[in-house]
Amino acid sequence: MATLESKLVDVVGDRTAKVLASTMGARSVDDLLRHYPRRYVVRGELTDISTLKEDDEVTILAQIHSANTRTLQGRRGTILEVVVTDGTAKLSLTFFNQPWREREMRVGRQGLFAGKVGVFKGKRQLAHPDYELIPEGSDVDSAVDDFAGKYLPVYPATSKLPSWKIAQCIELAIGALDELPDFLPEQIRIKHRYPTLKEALVTLHQPQDIDEAEMARERLTFDEAFLLQLLLVVRRAELKKLNATARPTRSGGLLEAFDSSLPFTLTPGQRDVIAEIESDMSASHPMHRLLQGEVGSGKTVVAIRAALAVIDSGGQAAMLAPTEVLASQHMRTLEKLLGPLAQGGMLGGSEHATQIALITGSQTTVARKESLALAASGQAGIIVGTHALLGESVAFADLGLIIVDEQHRFGVEQRDALKAKAESPPHLLVMTATPIPRTVAMTVFGDLDISTLRELPLGRQPISTHVIPAMDKPAFLDRAWERIREEVAKGHQAYVVAPRISATDATNSDMDFLFGTSSTPIVSVEELAPTLHAGPLKGLRIAVLHGQLSTDEKNTTMQAFTDGEIDVLVSTTVIEVGVDVPNATIMVVMDADRFGISQLHQLRGRIGRGSSAGLCLLVTNAGSDAPSRVRLDAVASTLDGFELSRIDLEQRREGDVLGVSQSGTRSHLRLLRVLRDESLIDIARTDAQEIVAEDFSLALWPQLAKELKLLQADEIAEYIDKG
User: Fold this and answer.
1) Which of 119, 214, 249, 474 has its CA 20 to 30 A from that of 658?
2) Do strands 380-385 and 316-320 pair parallel, antiparallel, or not at all (unpaired)?
3) What is the C-alpha separation between 592 and 224, in angstroms, rounded?
4) The domain 44-149: what is its CATH number?
5) Which tens digits make up the pLDDT trace of 608-620?
6) Does domain 254-281+298-432 have CATH number 1.20.1250.20?
7) Is the dihedral angle over the CA atoms 715, 716, 721, 723 positive or is it negative?
8) CB neighbour list of residue 714: distance below 8 Å, 6 or more residues apart
9) Residues 391-394: contacts with CB under 8 Å, at least 24 apart
10) CATH for 463-638?
11) What does pTM read for this prediction?
């Protein structure tokens, strides 16, 4: 008998096991049985051969007219062709490399044959049909009743491993399967009226009816949700057990001085989140919080307050940003908001002041040494940086808080490397301007407390968004350039975004697209800027910004744009996050269909940040029915980032959402879909919390503890675990 851990070679033989391993990555019985059917084909009413049409799923009762095995021409192998008839017409059945079947396909025998009708060289045929030969002397009507109505699984397959072959292998595995220990606690299984694990696996592959199959699928989907939620609930409980330095808010210090100097009023949402963070950091275990919010909702101010509270307690805060442009923007924002409070030890500095240090990979040696010294000595209370913060030479006097901006851009090891620089577990605040659907937050960030900022600060202006079908309406694109000129004439500024820096494969004629004369747009910053400068935006002050410029060039350009010395900034997506220029009111995104929904929403958030309304124009050549055009229409239809995030998720592969693309590992989550299974995830989380509350060690459920350890050992668990 076999268990789920049994090797496939012991069940299906060496040759088949090698094919299963190479095509499906299946090496154990568990791997094979977790290759679930995509759908089922129901053997239905018997069909006359004369009425068959291509692609029909049919079941016929017929008599074998002839059977012949021949060698394939030009390659190794054989083909068995069996011709059957129902008295009205004939049909060909083909079997590749199975000459042994000819022994049972004797002329005159009756049988039931089921499959999908194909056409080869003008003849209808069934390739590798499922069949059942009726024993001579048996009751044909009874045989038909037994054969018809059966649900046949259809599996994700390849040319080397067709669905019928997978079904054969799974039938062998199920036939050899011993009783299986069930890791799902009996109390939960009974509560939800789920079948046992063995019943669910057998039924999903060999259902008697569709309701039975759906219940089996639900049980196995629940298993995935439950194990993942258990992993996160356990991780959350473990974090609560860690000892951290409490950082309670103190009166009369830097934070109080900052609050009194703010030139604006915090929103109710900001105040609520601030209260949550203050409560977290007052505890003796580390804060582990995700702060998500709409573009421009004021996350940075909330993060600064958390950093200042830590500084008041004698500690330091590190702010990790994904790009040098964003790190520099954070530096400018801190200097602007803190003013004299960021000039500790300097003339004009406040008595409560601290210092801010910037550490990036392209700094000069002198600047880097100075920043490293400020961080190591503790003189700098806030250290802003890119991946350079993770370097061995970077040390802190007392790292009490880590702020990770746009967390999805950092890997596991990078975040851990920064945590390791603290003497005791630091508090962690993870920020994202990409709104996360509730179930994704529960599934990927379930071990974090989650705060959400939905409202925008008072005075923030609305942004209108329109799609420009440039090929169909070239005049609309001409009008876009006119709108930029109009905004600049009012004293405002503009962004023009292109999907790439250069287009070495582009020809000069490609740039004619800007004026509606080309059918093949290839838009790049390096070609776009001079074309605009010499054409529709002639006379305006235009500059470029992209990732290949030096740090000094990028900083100088951004500062000039911020100071109003540049009218139009032609850029790649380096402006996607963090860039804050209130005077910028219009953005034109070229080849907008090449960007994702979240990216477009982020880009759009760069305008409308001041007292004037924003206008975002999405230029595309995509047809009105193209999927990419549907994305653009969705972005144009709403400013609600949470609604857009749901649309974005629906269009993405599940593995991208759940971390597989980051870890490079086969996911345990083969059935679970975070949008479709929202209610199931809710139930699974509640069940997981009850189990952990009853017995954190899981000693009452040794099989469950074993299953959890297997998941924890997997790389995807490591990604979620340290996220």
Assistant:
1) 214
2) parallel
3) 37
4) 2.40.50.140
5) 888 899 999 999 9
6) no
7) positive
8) 665, 668
9) 394/359, 394/421
10) 3.40.50.300
11) 0.71
